[in-house]
Amino acid sequence: xxxxxxxxxxxxxxxxxxxxxxxxxxxxxxxxxxxxxxxxxxxxxxxxxxxxxxxxxxxxxxxxxxxxxxxxxxxxxxxxxxxxxxxxxxxxxxxxxxxxxxxxxxxxxxxxxxxxxxxxxxxxxxxxxxxxxxxxxxxxxxxxxxxxxxxxxxxxxxxxxxxxxxxxxxxxxxxxxxxxxxxxxxxxxxxxxxxxxxxxxxxxxxxxxxxxxxxxxxxxxxxxxxxxxxxxxxxxxxxxxxxxxxxxxxxxxxxxxxxxxxxxxxxxxxxxxxxxxxxxxxxxxxxxxxxxxxxxxxxxxxxxxxxxxxxxxxxxxxxxxxxxxxxxxxxxxxx
Amino acid sequence: xxxxxxxxxxxxxxxxxxxxxxxxxxxxxxxxxxxxxxxxxxxxxxxxxxxxxxxxxxxxxxxxxxxxxxxxxxxxxxxxxxxxxxxxxxxxxxxxxxxxxxxxxxxxxxxxxxxxxxxxxxxxxxxxxxxxxxxxxxxxxxxxxxxxxxxxxxxxxxxxxxxxxxxxxxxxxxxxxxxxxxxxxxxxxxxxxxxxxxxxxxxxxxxxxxxxxxxxxxxxxxxxxxxxxxxxxxxxxxxxxxxxxxxxxxxxxxxxxxxxxxxxxxxxxxxxxxxxxxxxxxxxxxxxxxxxxxxxxxx
Lengths: 335, 299
Fold this sequence. Notes:
The complex is a heterodimer.
Chain A: H1 3-30, H2 35-40, H3 47-56, H4 63-75, H5 89-124, H6 129-143, H7 146-160, H8 183-189, H9 193-230, H10 233-240, H11 245-282, H12 288-297, H13 301-329
Helix pairs in contact in A: 1-13, 5-6, 5-9, 5-11, 5-13, 6-9, 7-9, 7-11, 8-9, 9-11, 11-12, 11-13, 12-13
Chain B: H1 3-8, H2 17-27, H3 29-46, H4 48-51, H5 89-125, H6 127-141, H7 145-156, H8 160-171, H9 173-186, H10 190-197, H11 202-238, H12 250-258, H13 266-293
């Protein structure tokens, strides 16, 4: 793949992102309910002050002008002040983002760790017990409503057995100075194994809940890819050469059968980010998803705009990365 | 094969491919069972007023968080117990099926109709229509589904029609992409070429020639999407952005019950089982449908 093709692909992203920002802006402009009114929540304030505040937030200007200002500022990385926090939106989002990233990575890790071996085993033992089990497991994985599964997990492990915490990211007793802002990694880097296990106990249930549907999809992808590879000539040849069965399977076959799985995993990570809001709400996880849900209820337009744009950019970029990975891992495909 | 056998062999009537597919579907017992469960849920939704033992919205604070019948303090007339306002959970689940199924069916029907029309136009006419439709699809794909729906619900306010709209605005993309892809392949086939050669009008070729030939993947995709849409509606209701109280919706029932997980596990467990059972059955049935209509998938 050459640089020119890469530049071309990147340029294709721009109209999509512009379209996304237009839609987000129009949505916010059409949303009824004045942010200032919501902020006051019915308390009596002199109308001049309300007017001054609306002027201050730029709400009295015509929508088109507001959009131009929003777009111009966004290009310089300025998304304005959060109505609710009275701080730059980017700061507020940056504060919440590490929690979401940590949760997403943990879920991705679990999903891959489950689906790759399971998919391979299912393919090798096609139509046998383990294959049927994997198929039934995948069906449940895509059919379970995440918010309900999360609550059931809380009831079993936090309320009934009391082995895991109900919500949050870490106990207050464990304040480690931030390095990466991913609590599990920071506590290890700071040499606090007690805090590591504390952070781990908090993340395990939400990560599991988030990982389940993804693991279900990836298992199917891995199984299908493995079945295809196992039929190919080079595998038959490797067997014929007398290479051990295990080596053929886990070295020769898996290497090629991983390509679709990795690609789909990259794409699914985008939807994982979007699915976070339900799981974060259930587990009181202080991430971006919960922030967006809260912001919608208080009409915090600048924050919603920036967050949705952020999601869209990440989503589009992850799909782009998936394409690139696919081409790099599979030289037969040309971009 | 000998000549005698040949002469005896009865002339087999040729069945339509659709009939053959349906026969394959019925032969798959697992899928058939799932389809029956889905049908039972639909019947339950239709006949809710006759089936529900109690008024789903009737509060009875004396029965607040009454446990399920088989537990201590339970009553057989309140089989699955009562919620935080003393409402019968079973009756609310029966009525909640109406919301889930109505939204699932209506959203998928509208989205499939719109998506099929746009996909047909884009795939067959190409040119600026295709560019426009494909760009809009790209942009809509840039949004995570739930975030898009949540933002729309905030914009339009709560209500059944608004949930349907919020989901349709993005859902049509799925059938549109499938149809466009199928049409791109079909438009190069001989039968389309033949129709063009005899001078059939464009609309006729799209609707009467191509559409019937690409219908089975569209139907299969729609049934799979229905499961998706039902979970999305439940998620919206769970977040408080869906159907508004007191109307019973499975998602909001789970959300309400969440406040009582320490004392009353049944309040959010049973409505969730209803969601799981319906979505699981739809998924199994649609998988069976896919295998029946397209045997090359059945690997």
